[in-house]
Fold this protein.
Amino acid sequence: MICPKCGTDNPDDTLFCENCDWRMDMPFRAAKKRNVNALASAVLICGVLSIFLAFLTAFAGIALGAVGLLIGGYAINAVRIVKPDNEKILVVAAAAGLLLSMVGFILGFAYI
Ligand SMILES: [Zn+2]
């Protein structure tokens, strides 16, 4: 039985791939992988921008910080479910974005 994610040939009765732990009965969609890359990047960008914007326009910093916080939690869960090859990097990027968004959010309130 060929793993739909990594292509490793596993014994026919295996439920999880011996190489990548993918569930053998779940189809792997490469498109989803690209989505989590974009999602984690978006969280990181939101976080960085929210801090910059907090200094310029407090409300923009708060708004973008809130967006970063919302999609940050979703992004970390999505990365863990999809399990891409660069899972660790994406989780770190999303977590950093989440943290930066929180800082931008708080800074925005401090500058009102
Ligand atoms: Zn596999």
In short: Helices lie at 30-56, 58-82, 87-110. The pocket of zinc ion is lined by residues 3, 5-6, 8, 17, 19-20, 22 (CB under 6 Å). The chain is about 70% helix and 0% strand.
